TrEMBL record:
It holds the Pfam family MutS_V. InterPro entries: DNA_mismatch_repair_MutS_C, MutS, P-loop_NTPase. One of its GO terms (cellular component) is cytosol. Residues 346-532 form the DNA mismatch repair proteins mutS family domain. Keywords: ATP-binding, DNA-binding, Membrane, Nucleotide-binding, Transmembrane, Transmembrane helix. It comes from the Bacteria. One of its GO terms (molecular function) is ATP-dependent DNA damage sensor activity. The chain crosses the membrane at residues 167-184, 253-273. This is MutS domain V. It comes from Parabacteroides chartae. GO terms for biological process: mismatch repair.
Length: 538
């Protein structure tokens, strides 16, 4: 019995889900199945090759929605590769090669269009599964593989023997039924790898077409070597590329005949196990071709992204810690987003302000551009200067009811991870929204002040934190520069300008907002009286 690894069970489930939900994805409104898109990235995480953004930060900055906005890839291979690049901080290498090709494609639109057309040959959802061929161990040949090779010839032998004796008609029927059973016995393996192997053949052809354009001379030697190594399997892999080539009855009949021949003679299971056994030593070649296509597709995607947005900048990287400044930063997903500017001068940032005034959105703006600066050398601002930083956040926290953990306990665990990261290595940007709001006021302020002081005292860390507790602003002035967002109340109407302002919030409008929204006078008067008493006591 062949052991079927869990990773391939997950892959089959993802493929079934994709087949059920697959939609036309020829434009920016395409359907996104992130279980499949993130496949390459998840394996890269497990390989511990790169420094990546954690799942908490991915959720906090709405990364999946951001990815949909950023994605202009033309192939499924490029889409998987681009997803990984956007979350891999270790790609904060020199962007010289990237910018060279972006400049080239922007100036040579004809070559760009030709390459896009070639890349689109890998845009079927089956192309996602090329990763199966180089990211994990394959299933092995069944124990009785040699018997399968013997059984595949029996139907042909018995058919020829029917001219000698009618008894062979019976044996022919038995051999066909037996092979039919074995074919479907191995169908799950065929189904799992059929798409991968067939798309590998397309990948080889796509690489060949792009290399033949003569643009990538530096990569050509390595690519041709990998392509040549894999082409030894090309004749066998062609079996998995047999498709219907028309809708007429003749084509339908020919396709069915080909399918029956593959079933009766066990062609698919024999070839799939043989091809996989040979591919085990060629994983690096598959990966080489895959990542080349991913790189090229990513360059074109970044170019089209830059051409589509209201404005962007190429960031400037500094080695000095606590370097972070930007001019007219904005959130890419918010139409007509109000831009803001900031320059950090050796301190972290504490934001005060009322709900809906823009604090959390501003923090997400900073997080997104800090991430993209280090992964694709592109920021949604007119200017952006930074030092390389790991990104950790505690913005969107909720109860974990299944594990019986309260909101506050989830906050404690999330911030504990930040402290652990701080101890492990420097160069972090910490993003916190309403720290410890899951507990009472006095302890919240006390614990918040202690944690924020601890995180900000390191020269290599920058903290962005929002709070309603103006008391924290007074306690943290030595380590934090104070800024605020506020609402505007005029003629009993509430509006927001979403502009970042220097200093701590000086006004309190919560009770006034209740009054504007026609709360009973008894409640308003009681609230004002209580507030007055609390202010006197403090």
């Amino acid at each position: 019995m062949i052991k079927f690894p869990k990773i391939y069970i997950d892959s089959i489930k993802a493929k079934l889900s994709s087949n059920r939900n697959n939609k036309n994805d020829s434009d920016k409104q395409k359907f996104y199945n992130f279980d499949i898109i993130s496949y390459y990235h998840r394996f890269k995480i497990n390989s511990a090759e790169d420094i990546t953004v954690d799942d908490k930060t991915v959720a906090d900055i709405d990364f999946y929605e951001v990815f949909k906005f950023l994605d202009y890839t033309k192939s499924k291979v490029g889409q998987q590769f681009f997803f990984n690049r956007l979350l891999t901080l270790d790609s904060r290498k020199d962007f010289v090669e990237q910018e060279k090709w972006i400049t080239y494609f922007s100036q040579n639109k004809k070559d760009k269009i030709i390459i896009e057309r070639i890349l689109s040959k890998l845009d079927k959802h089956e192309s996602y599964y090329i990763t199966n061929l180089f990211l994990d161990e394959y299933i092995g040949k069944p124990k009785h593989y040699d018997i399968l090779k013997f059984l595949c010839f029996l139907p042909a032998v018995f058919f020829l023997m029917t001219f000698i004796s009618k008894i062979f008609y019976f044996l022919l029927g038995i051999s066909i039924v037996l092979n039919l059973i074995l074919h479907y016995r191995f169908k799950k393996y065929i189904y799992l790898y059929k798409d991968s192997v067939s798309q590998l053949l397309i990948l080889i052809n796509v690489v060949n077409e792009i290399v033949n354009l003569g643009l990538f001379s530096n990569e050509a030697t390595s690519l041709l070597k990998s392509k040549k190594s894999l082409e030894t399997l090309k004749k066998k892999m062609i079996v998995f590329r047999i498709e219907k080539i028309g809708d007429s009855d003749i084509f339908e009949i020919l396709f069915l005949i080909a399918e029956y021949i593959k079933i009766i003679f066990l062609i698919e299971p024999l070839i799939i196990f043989d091809v996989l056994s040979q591919l085990k030593s060629k994983k690096d070649d598959v990966r080489n071709l895959y990542e080349f296509i991913g790189e090229i597709d990513s360059y074109i995607s970044i170019l089209e992204l830059r051409e589509s947005v209201r404005y962007y900048c190429i960031p400037e990287s500094k080695e000095k810690f606590k370097t972070l400044s930007f001019v007219d930063i904005y959130h890419p997903l918010i139409e007509d987003c109000v831009p803001n500017s900031l320059e950090i001068n050796g301190k972290s940032i504490l934001l005060t302000g009322s709900n809906m005034a823009g604090k959390t959105t501003f923090i997400r703006c900073v997080a997104i551009s800090t991430l993209l600066a280090q992964t694709i050398n592109t920021c949604f601002a007119r200017e952006f200067k930074y030092c390389p930083m790991n990104i950790l956040s505690a913005i969107r926290i909720s109860d974990d009811l299944l594990n019986e953990r309260s909101y506050y306990f989830e906050e404690v665990l999330t911030i504990k991870n930040m402290i652990a990261q701080n101890l492990e290595k420097g160069g972090n940007i910490f993003l916190l929204d309403e720290i410890f709001k899951g507990t009472n006021t006095l302890e919240r302020i006390s614990a918040g002040k202690a944690v924020l002081s601890y995180l900000a005292k390191e020269d290599s860390n920058v903290v962005f934190v929002s709070t309603h507790d103006v008391e924290l602003a007074d306690l943290l002035r030595d380590l934090y520069d104070l800024y605020h967002f506020t609402e505007i109340i005029q003629n009993d109407q509430i509006s927001f300008d979403y502009k970042l302002k220097k200093g701590s919030l000086a006004t309190r409008n919560a009770i006034r907002i209740l009054e504007i929204n026609d709360y009973p006078k008894e409640i308003i008067n009681d609230a004002k009286e209580t507030f007055s008493c609390l202010c006197q006591d403090s």
